[in-house]
Amino acid sequence: MTRSHGHDLDTRARRLLRTLIAQYLADGEPVGSRTLSRSSGLDVSPATIRNIMADLEDAGLVASPHTSAGRVPTPRGLRLFVDSLIELQPLPRDEMVRLKRELPPGPTTTRDLLGNVSTLLSAMTHFAGVVTVPRQGDFPLRHIDFVPLPDARVLVILVFSDNQVQNRIVQLARPLDGRELEQAANYLNTHFAGLRVDDIRAHLLRELREAGSELNRLVASATELAAASFAPQGDAEDVLVSGQTNLMGYAELADLDRLRELFEAFQKKNELLQLMEVCARAPGVRLFIGEESGFAALDGCSVVTASYGVQGRVLGAVGVIGPTRMAYERVIPVVQATAGLLSDALNRAATSL
């Protein structure tokens, strides 16, 4: 997470701001000077507290709702709180055990695993859980088979390292019999299992250019099949969302127009996917509070994400979307631990090739 700037507050101001935000996150109500005087543990007069609160308000860190004499933190104040006023702790052991227990231990497709992660994040935080689904071509190939069809067509069966199976029908320039297809499949499986589709295609096309007419019939057939089978399919990234209805229970998001705009964003996914792709490109935890996300539909929400990947390659991001009034010190470790466990599961699948 990025560090905030311009928060050169003295010790008393920082302590009062921390106390105010913690109280607000706990009950959602504006916090008055008397409450701060009792809760902060500072030996200062109510007048001093009011003066410090006025300074914090001038700095844009707190605001006074017109319906109350108390104050609430602004998104800028929450950003300062998260970046420098709380100490994040590792996820408690019992919650880590729950995460490990509820993630599927056995073989499963990546999409099924990610759907489970999205649901689990929602259940553990009571917010909306979000997970990006990478392109299938980002996963290594485990096995390939060819089945002859009429009119020089071939059914291609691709099995990826995440147990996902794709069937494609390709058109060849000339028909190949079952024996030729079997030989080509054996060649590709022997030499290229464990590589990504894009890498296999690039390698074979490079061999084709370098060898020219000297390629033997087997390699030529395998190259033709691979070029057709691994052609880009436009399998764009997707994002899975679980627990959207949880957000209807928070007063901060109860406005019908706001909810409608938020749910439309979940349904269309375009803006959400853009945001998650930005998060995936950065290591560690990313946090957007309110308008920091740049998307109007997420104003009034906080987005907490962490990237996941396999064998050192980032594949996407997991996270939660909830109101800005969330228990950041708990939510951030949950998201961070989930991303780590997901990466571990994907790495185990990759090493089983």
Structural class: alpha+beta
Mean pLDDT, rounded to whole units? 85
**Unreliable parts:** 1-6
The run of helices and strands is HHHEEHHHEEEEHHHEHHEEEH
* Whole-number tally of structural domains: 3
CATH architecture of the largest domain: 2-Layer Sandwich
- Indicate the percent of residues in helices: 40-55%
Strand content: 15-25%
Under CATH, the topology of the largest domain can be stated as Beta-Lactamase
Largest sheet: 5 strands, antiparallel
Topology readout:
Blueprint (H helix, E strand, L loop, with lengths): L10 H17 L5 H8 L5 H13 L3 E2 L8 E2 L1 H11 L7 H10 L7 H16 L2 E6 L7 E9 L3 E8 L4 E7 L6 H15 L4 H15 L5 H13 L8 E5 L13 H13 L1 H11 L4 E5 L11 E10 L2 E11 L4 H24 L2
Antiparallel strand pairs: 1-2, 3-7, 3-10, 4-5, 5-6, 8-9, 9-10
Give the gist of this structure.
This protein is an alpha+beta fold and 353 residues long. The protein has helices spanning 11-27, 33-40, 46-58, 75-85, 93-102, 110-125, 178-192, 197-211, 217-229, 256-268, 270-280, 328-351, and strands spanning 62-63, 72-73, 128-133, 141-149, 153-160, 165-171, 238-242, 285-289, 301-310, 313-323.
Structure in words:
One of its GO terms (biological process) is negative regulation of DNA-templated transcription. One of its GO terms (molecular function) is DNA binding. Negative regulator of class I heat shock genes (grpE-dnaK-dnaJ and groELS operons). Prevents heat-shock induction of these operons. This is Heat-inducible transcription repressor HrcA. With 353 residues, this protein is of the alpha+beta class. The protein has three domains: 75 residues, Winged helix-like DNA-binding domain superfamily/Winged helix DNA-binding domain (Arc Repressor Mutant, subunit A, Orthogonal Bundle), CATH 1.10.10; 157 residues, GAF domain (Beta-Lactamase); 92 residues, Enolase-like, domain 1. The chain contains twelve helices and ten strands. The strands form three sheets. The protein has a five-stranded antiparallel sheet with strand order 7-3-10-9-8, sandwiched between helices. It has a three-stranded antiparallel sheet with strand order 4-5-6. Strand 5 and strand 6 form a beta hairpin. Helix 8 crosses helix 9. The longest helix is centred in the last third of the chain and has 24 residues. The N terminus is likely disordered.
